[in-house]
Inverse folding.
């Protein structure tokens, strides 16, 4: 038995010594990009001599943390994100010696507010949606916050129909939920004084009011599990209800459900691409240039991901739910990839 | 008193007997419920898993033209592209490069279908298969160009983003690597710790403190071991993230207290007279423990270790933290390669939206259960075979 212990100790030492060399790409980051990223990883592994990259779904923030930890071979080569790199994260990367990062956008992710095919058409604004789902909303005079009192849409806005508010949506563990909280709650509440004034009054205690994103728990918003099939079934039975899910799912079930329009625009690849449909976001990945040449296959992976075969209008990623970029944007990022354009701090301030 | 005897049963006696019957019934109900849950679970899982062991194939004409090298879609008829598995198609160019003599020929082959076609043939409402493809498949079925075969790929390939190609090999190999490491580390250390505590250590405040802590460690949530593993093995010792080594060591930490407790109980069950007899014949402490106490305690130690390892095998929570819950389709070839394990694979599949993964999730659970039940069966057999009676 002593031999075994010595053996185990020796193995650990070997491990510590050999952790430097690596012949397999490591990718971390957003769970929203994960399906596409791992799809491309598999295609790379099965059509080239390179090993299939390891793709870990850590969330956008978790991915950035691992990515920016340093240049060592034990850090990931790519990180996926469902939002842009933050200035803070960029600084951390620079501080840890990761000077050269290239940014790629692969496409869009959209959220659809869906309802039964037999329901009357509905048009909502992001603010109305926020008022329907937030845990606390501004009072009538707009000066303070009250627990969400709304149970019918016409209570929020007299122009809306007298229809019961029931919303089936993703649970907290889901990437779609993050997107929903970002695009509908945070985006709106950060511009409403009733929330931000509370934050300004006490920045520590009222931190959550800076970008308020708590969802009501009184049964109006029903978290419905990861299984989107179930939401579709519920929507066909409960005609008044609305459901929230990823755009790709709406496209697969157009025979049973339709979409509510947001600020007059229905979700479709075109409206997402031209930015008129507001419930969408860009999907990114970042390349650690210092690893190119040390880890085999990195450029091949990036090129395959950005290829027309994957992210084009008829590409394989579009087939599994990615909304493609407009043609000129794809070309723009491909040129960036070819030149390995370095991401600068100023770039992150610009809007896409 | 004599009065009671004469009338046979008195009211209190009857009451006690009724309480007795009720008590037995409660027990029986509990057992019945537990059995019902178990049976329901098995029927449900097996019912869902069975379709996963068959895959659909279609007979198509494959043209090995020169153009296939650059565009694999050209190998088959345009309208069949969504019917045939893309995973099979995209392997063609490499095949042609390896066998250049095939170029220019064509063949009638049974090839795997896309998962949506597979689901449609299995009667799962064709989840996502567009009507125009449904018609094509219906027509092919009439011509006898559709068949179902045993799904060997499920056991011979790793994870895939195409459900029809997804298998458990990579996860199974990862589980074996991880578990072997856990065993190599946890069993010797655990047994030696227990021997020291039980046979050599004096009963002091310190040993009692250690004892209480070991008992507590056996009960803490397993995810904490993941954090510990991340801090010690990955961040401090530089073990590669996601590797079987990191997983094995982390799970070894988790299994240690279980093995220590089981070993100590087994050692304690060895009668004191055995030790005294050995000492009486002039044996040293080492000889006493090694030659007499340990062999007698072996069945208990083995049972405890196997149960501890079985628990480690079904564990996922600590492995999320150290990055083993990831898309890793290739089986590891060394303990430093990225690896995933069976329960992690089951979890990954259960979160996929395509219907083809649902049956694979159930099949994965079935495989995991089979392995766990066999491990437990080995533990029971060993115990029965080696048990000593005094």
């Amino acid at each position: 038995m002593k031999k075994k212990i010595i053996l185990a100790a020796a193995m650990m030492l070997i491990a510590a010594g050999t952790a430097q060399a690596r012949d397999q790409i490591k990718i971390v980051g957003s769970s929203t990009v994960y399906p596409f990223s791992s799809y491309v990883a598999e295609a790379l592994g099965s059509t080239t001599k390179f090993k299939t990259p390891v793709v870990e779904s850590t969330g956008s923030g978790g991915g950035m943390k691992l990515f920016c930890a340093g240049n060592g071979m034990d850090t990931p080569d790519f990180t996926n994100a469902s939002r842009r790199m933050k200035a803070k994260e960029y600084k951390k990367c620079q501080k840890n010696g990761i000077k050269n990062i290239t940014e790629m956008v692969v496409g869009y992710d959209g959220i659809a507010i869906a309802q039964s095919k037999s329901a009357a058409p509905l048009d909502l604004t992001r603010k109305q949606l926020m008022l329907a789902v937030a845990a606390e909303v501004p009072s009538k005079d707009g000066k303070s916050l009250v627990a969400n009192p709304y149970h019918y849409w016409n209570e929020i806005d007299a122009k809306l129909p007298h229809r019961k508010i029931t919303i089936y949506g993703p649970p907290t563990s889901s990437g779609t939920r993050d997107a929903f909280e970002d695009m509908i709650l945070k985006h709106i509440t950060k511009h409403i004084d009733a929330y931000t004034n509370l934050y300004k009054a006490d920045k520590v205690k009222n931190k959550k009011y800076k970008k308020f994103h708590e969802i009501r728990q009184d049964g109006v918003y029903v978290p419905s599990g990861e299984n989107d099939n179930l939401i579709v079934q519920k929507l066909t039975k409960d005609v008044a209800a609305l459901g929230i899910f990823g755009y790709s799912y709406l496209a697969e079930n157009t025979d049973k459900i339709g979409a509510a329009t947001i600020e007059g625009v229905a979700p479709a690849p075109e409206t997402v691409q031209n930015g008129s449909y507001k419930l969408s976001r860009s999907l990114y990945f970042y390349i650690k240039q210092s690893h190119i040449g040390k880890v085999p296959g990195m450029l091949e992976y990036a090129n395959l991901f950005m290829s027309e075969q994957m992210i084009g209008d008829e590409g394989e990623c579009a087939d599994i739910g990615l909304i493609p970029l407009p043609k000129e944007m794809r070309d723009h990022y491909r040129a960036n990839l070819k030149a390995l354009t370095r991401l600068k701090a100023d770039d992150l301030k610009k809007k896409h | 008193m004599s009065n009671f005897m004469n009338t046979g049963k008195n009211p209190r006696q009857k009451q006690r007997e009724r309480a007795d019957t009720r008590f037995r019934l409660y027990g029986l109900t509990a057992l019945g419920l537990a059995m019902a849950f178990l049976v329901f679970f098995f029927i449900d899982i097996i019912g869902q898993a069975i379709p996963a062991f068959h895959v659909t194939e279609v007979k198509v004409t494959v043209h090995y033209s020169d153009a296939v090298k650059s565009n694999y879609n050209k190998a088959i008829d345009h309208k069949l592209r969504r019917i045939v598995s893309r995973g099979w198609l995209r392997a063609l160019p490499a095949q042609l490069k390896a066998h250049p003599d095939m170029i220019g020929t064509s063949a009638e082959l049974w090839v795997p279908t896309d998962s949506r076609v597979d689901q449609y043939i299995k009667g799962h409402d064709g989840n996502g298969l567009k009507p125009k493809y449904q018609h094509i498949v219906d027509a092919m079925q009439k011509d006898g160009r559709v068949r179902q075969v045993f799904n060997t790929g499920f056991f011979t390939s790793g994870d895939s983003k195409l459900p029809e190609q997804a298998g458990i090999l990579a996860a199974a190999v990862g589980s074996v690597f991880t578990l072997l490491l856990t065993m190599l580390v946890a069993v010797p250390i655990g047994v030696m710790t227990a021997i020291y505590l039980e046979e050599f250590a004096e009963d002091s405040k310190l040993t009692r403190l250690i004892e209480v802590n070991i008992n507590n460690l056996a009960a803490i949530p397993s995810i904490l071991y993941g954090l510990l593993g991340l801090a010690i093995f990955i961040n401090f010792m530089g073990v590669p993230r996601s590797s079987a080594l990191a997983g094995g060591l982390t799970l070894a930490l988790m299994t240690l207290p279980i093995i220590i407790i089981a070993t100590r109980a087994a050692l304690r069950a060895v009668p004191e007279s055995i030790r005294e007899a050995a000492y009486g014949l002039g044996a040293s402490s080492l000889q006493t423990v090694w030659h007499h106490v340990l062999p007698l305690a072996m069945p208990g130690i083995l049972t405890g270790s196997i149960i501890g390892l079985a628990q480690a095998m079904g564990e996922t929570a600590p492995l999320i933290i150290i990055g083993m819950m990831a898309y890793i389709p290739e089986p590891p070839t060394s303990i430093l390669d990225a690896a995933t394990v069976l329960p992690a694979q089951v979890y990954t599949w259960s979160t996929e939206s395509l219907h083809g993964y649902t049956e694979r999730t159930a099949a994965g659970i079935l495989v995991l259960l089979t392995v766990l039940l066999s491990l437990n069966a080995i533990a029971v057999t060993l115990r029965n075979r080696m048990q000593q009676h005094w």
